[in-house]
From TrEMBL:
The lineage of its organism: Eukaryota, Viridiplantae, Streptophyta, Embryophyta, Tracheophyta. This is AB hydrolase-1 domain-containing protein. InterPro entries: AB_hydrolase, AB_hydrolase_fold. Residues 49-92 are annotated as: Disordered. It comes from the Eukaryota. Gene3D superfamilies: alpha/beta hydrolase (3.40.50.1820).
Amino acid sequence: MPYCEVDRYQAGDKWEGVRLFYRRYGRGATKVLLVIGLAGTHDSWGPQIRGLTGSMEPADGGDVPEPAARTDEEAAAPATATAPEEEDVGEGIEVCCFDNRGVGRSTIPPHKSYYS
């Protein structure tokens, strides 16, 4: 599953950081980052993704199963790195959207103070 690992920002905590779930759609030289608002998930961008890329097929894999409940230790585990893909060329658009902290498939911080 595609996750972006973010290190902790408060020293001395057992909690090691957050994992932000993201999804990429389409391919091309033009890059678009969609940032959702309050309590929305990456899935909320469906109509815009289809309009920009012409497809709802993820560029970084197929369907992702719903995650099981995670412990603090599992949430802080490093993600597996993937090999860089070929250089994007052409007139297409690549879209990236993500779930904010505490929403969707991203890590839920253990304390309210960890939200910004």
